[in-house]
Amino acid sequence: DCGQIKDRFPRAPSGVYSITPDLRKASFKKTQKVYCEMRTNGAWTVFQRRSSARCTFNRKWTAFRNGFGGLKSDHWLGLRKVFALTKNKSRKWILRVDLWDHEGNSAFAQYSDFRLGDEKSAFKLHVGQFSGNAGDAIRGRHSGVDQNGFGFSTIDRDNDGCSPCIFGDIAETECASSSGGAWWFSRCGSAALNGDWHPAGDHIGWASGLHWDTWKTFAPYSLKATRMMIKSV
């Protein structure tokens, strides 16, 4: 992984590298290219990046499973690849979520013991202890919206637990459809970084956008940029 590259080449710059995760029984190439972020305390494997509307994230299950976009720009690495990296429980992984707003501010959330389940579990999310200054949006601001332990939902595969979910006078049945993107939704919840991207001042839609509710108000604010990345410890 990126950490092993950093260990061998301590001065290696950030960029695209080839790694060899544990891909047994996986139906894709053994060696995979990833973007390694070497500057932010080093050796992170980036699996999500948003900064503009050029790359749409309003896609179906197969796209999120396999990955899309360009590694040097906005992209989603692919749930199968992240699962392959994190499935060995003898190794521990940290998830870091970096957030930027349209006013020049930034914040981050970090989680210990990150891993994903296999596809049969809908790539169920597991995170451990939270740290950072963005707040723990994965576990949510309110009771009943904890996304930890939930499977991934897309516009064509619903695992969000809504049948429906009632929010005031709104009855929500598919969080992925209303948010414009996919996520580990739990009664929709307080985090959703794969929705529609909006420029400054265009935070339209009560759910559509890039949201981290414990840092910025869920509606109508949509973040300028996000980055999700993992590293082994």
TrEMBL record:
Residues 1-233 form the Fibrinogen C-terminal domain. Gene3D superfamilies: Gamma Fibrinogen, chain A, domain 1. GO terms for biological process: negative regulation of T cell activation; regulation of immune response. Pfam families: Fibrinogen_C. InterPro entries: Fibrinogen-like_C, Fibrinogen_a/b/g_C_1, Fibrinogen_a/b/g_C_dom, Fibrinogen_C-term_domain, Fibrinogen_CS. Keywords: Disulfide bond. Transmembrane segments: none annotated. One of its GO terms (cellular component) is extracellular space. The keyword Disulfide bond applies. PANTHER family: FIBRINOGEN-LIKE PROTEIN 1, FIBRINOGEN/TENASCIN/ANGIOPOEITIN. This is Fibrinogen C-terminal domain-containing protein. It comes from Tetraodon nigroviridis (Spotted green pufferfish).
